[in-house]
Amino acid sequence: MTHSPRLSEPSIEVSSNQMASPQPRRMYTPIAPMLLGTPRSHGSKRFREEEEEPVIEESKRRKRSDSQMSTQFELSEEDKLLLQLKEEESMPWKDIAARFQTDLNKTYQIPALQMRLKRLRERMRVWSEQDVKALRAAHEYWAQNKFEIIAAKMAEFGALEKWTARQCSRKWQELDPAAIPYAHFEPHIQHGFAPYAMSPVEPPPSNSLFYHLHAH
């Protein structure tokens, strides 16, 4: 059987060296996948900002506290020495008294130095914004409920009868006219007409305005 002639194909000669060692592949730098619509630099920038925010806020609070302390008072030379020796160096009180004698040529007893440090610490305390907010809220609560507190405490101080907060408020206005009226209880009643300040067991005087208004 005869075979049809094939198209001539170019002969490719491959050397044994090329077959034994394949050509090395070209390596490319890997690139992380990128979310659609989000620039690559935006996420890293936001992460850095979130990392830096606590540090910035802390430094602001520290600067604010330092400025508040500096505006409140200035430390004297004796106060600075006392804080340095006790707070920073934790020196015993006996040695602190000796240092005051040698450094400042001043003699202090140990109890006097201890009391001075206690008062100095109290002066150096700084009110935070949260504590000031709590103070305002507590004062507002006291202003609105002070006569409830007073009425509840009167029995502990020897009151013979039980009085309500309204009655305590009215009586206190008689004793101290400059006091702020108790606004929660009938503010339309005139200052001179205070039947709630009278005892609940004693009848009102016959010539009082309260008696005439209710007798007819």
Shape: elongated
* Low-pLDDT segments: 65-71, 184-216
Computed over alpha carbons, the radius of gyration is 44 Å
- Helix count equals 8
Structural category: mainly alpha
**Mean of the pLDDT scores?**
71
**Percent of residues in helices:** 55-70%
- Distance between termini? 148 Å
| Percent range for β-strand residues | under 5%
Number of separate strands: 0
Protein name: SANT domain containing protein
Region (Disordered): 1-75
Organism: Pyrenophora tritici-repentis
InterPro entries: SANT/Myb (IPR001005)
Question: How are the secondary structure elements laid out?
Answer:
Elements: H1 16-20, H2 40-72, H3 77-88, H4 93-104, H5 110-124, H6 129-154, H7 165-175, H8 209-215
Short summary:
The chain is mainly alpha-helical. Among the domains are: 50-124, no CATH class; 141-215, no CATH class. The chain has eight helices and no strands.
Description:
This is SANT domain containing protein. The protein has 216 residues and is mainly alpha-helical. It contains eight helices and no strands. Among the domains are: 50-124, no CATH class; 141-215, no CATH class. It has helices at residues 16-20, 40-72, 77-88, 93-104, 110-124, 129-154, 165-175, 209-215. Helix 3 packs antiparallel against helix 4 and helix 6 (129-154) crosses helix 7 (165-175). It starts with 15 loop residues before the first helix and ends with a helix.
Could you name the key traits of this structure?
single chain; 216 residues; mainly alpha; 8 helices; 0% strand; SANT/Myb; SANT domain containing protein
